[in-house]
# Entry
Amino acid sequence: QQKVQQSPESLIVPEGGMASLNCTSSDRNVDYFWWYRQHSGKSPKMLMSIFSNGEKEEGRFTVHLNKASLHTSLHIRDSQPSDSALYLCAAENSNNRIFFGDGTQLVVKP
Amino acid sequence: NSKVIQTPRYLVKGQGQKAKMRCIPEKGHPVVFWYQQNKNNEFKFLINFQNQEVLQQIDMTEKRFSAECPSNSPCSLEIQSSEAGDSALYLCASSRGLGVNYAEQFFGPGTRLTVL
# Structure
């Protein structure tokens, strides 16, 4: 049973556009979310984490979290071709079990 | 940059053969994870350890895979009898711990297994 669902599976945005990625957990005991980015041929690297309700911004990247609905979203403004990658959402529950989603493949077209 | 070391980078085995890969976590990271990423980029958790103890593992890992993280030796993941469907990138990651302040995972470059 997939504990973390990501949508869309793939996303194409024009350079300079806004990319919005979604992630929801079905585990009511999830406390924390992470977003990882994996460029083609590379291993994943942590991009952003969010643990509290609300919003967190780092440069062009903004993460939202709604703990009541166990939904997080990642928004990339002014998208660049270098942002093209697989974006993985991970969630950790109160038993310290960590679950990854299957990812959203983002393509930013010049 | 991650300092997780994985060997070998590429591994080719025939069906039914054993396939073994190794991982040295970052220094000071007692938690080690193994993941399988298939050609469709689907990411599957296999097993994780805290020091030498298994924290959690999936059914597939219990049956056909064996893994260990002995003290003072690399962690290892071994497929007892490889199947074509095991062809994938096997990623090892380590973290300083679990919970909000420690659980960022640092990934190695992976071992790409091809089962002929």
About this structure: The radius of gyration of chain A is 13 Å. Residues 18 and 96 of chain A are 33 Å apart (CA to CA). The mean pLDDT of chain A is 94.
